[in-house]
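From: lab user (bench 3)
To: helpdesk
Subject: output format question, protein + NAP

Hello, I'm new to running complex predictions and I'm not sure whether the block I got back is the full result or only part of it. Here's what I submitted:
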Amino acid sequence: MIDRLCIIGVGLIGGSLARALKTTGACKEVVGYGRNAASLKKALQLGVIDRFETKLYPAVKGSDIVVICVPVGAMKDVFCQLAPLLTQDMIVTDVGSSKRSVVEAAQTAFGYLPANFVPGHPIAGTEQSGVEASFAELYHGRRVILTPVAETDHKAVEAVQSMWQKAGAVVTKMQVDHHDEVLAATSHLPHLLAFTLVESLARMDEKAEIFEYAAGGFRDFTRIASSDPVMWHDICLANAKELLNMLNRFSADLEKLRKAIKEGDSQYIMSVFQTAKQARDRFCGN
Ligand code: NAP
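Helpdesk reply: Thanks, we reran it on our side. This is the complete output you should expect:
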């Protein structure tokens, strides 16, 4: 049982965690903190949090766990504000989609990596954002990756793991850099492709007609282009190294396909599509 949980940034991810822990009775009190009193009032009205504070000290005071749920570009500022308030019995974790940048931000802000800071990332979300979009079942059966570093206290890791398990998630652990490499491939690159495709089509003269005839395939492929631009801007820059590696690799493969289409190389085209279909059917089920 968590006596008091503080959520910094009560949006989709933080709000869904609060809802999940309140629904299962795993947390006695959820305190919200953020830069925007109107969003926090909304969270209170929706019953997502029990109270909110617009000053950080009363928000984190007496909290067992503080969960930082702001965009990754805003993490360093939050760590800097938190640094003078951190106590030994306060566990701090985050939900940022890139982990090297968050660990570096913590190191800079605190001047060291606190043993009670546990970097984390729930592999769950939707293209919606804000507390109104939050729901208690978001983490059911979904993975949460924790990326503890050498300095991290194992008791803090266990507490954060238990919190996510109570929210319905399956927790795994990974090295920081491995996390960023894997997520660049499976999440960051697909988002970048969806944003780029929709933006490219939106600039075409025939855009009205194109979008009018967009059917299931277009909607499936581009759903994630409705995600929050600020959040994805931050992720692209925060995980630039791994994202550029994936982008270079993907661009080379796309160029090979472009050449095959130009040269009418049906064997190459078929082999790409067949391999892709088999891989997706195997991993995602069909
Ligand atoms: P969200 O719904 O937009 O919520 C973000 C929250 O952070 C809001 O409460 C927002 O407050 C606050 N915030 C935004 N910018 C801020 C700033 N500069 N300083 C302080 N607070 C700020 O976003 P989300 O989807 O929950 O994402 C939050 C985090 O989860 C991000 O780090 C993201 O990388 C990670 N994540 C997202 C997903 C996903 O699919 N959405 C999945 C896994 C992890 P306001 O009301 O003032 O805007």
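A quick orientation on your result: Residues 9-14, 34-36, 39, 69-72, 74, 95-97, 121-122, 125, 129-130, 228, 231, 235 surround NAP (CB under 6 Å). Let us know if anything else is unclear.
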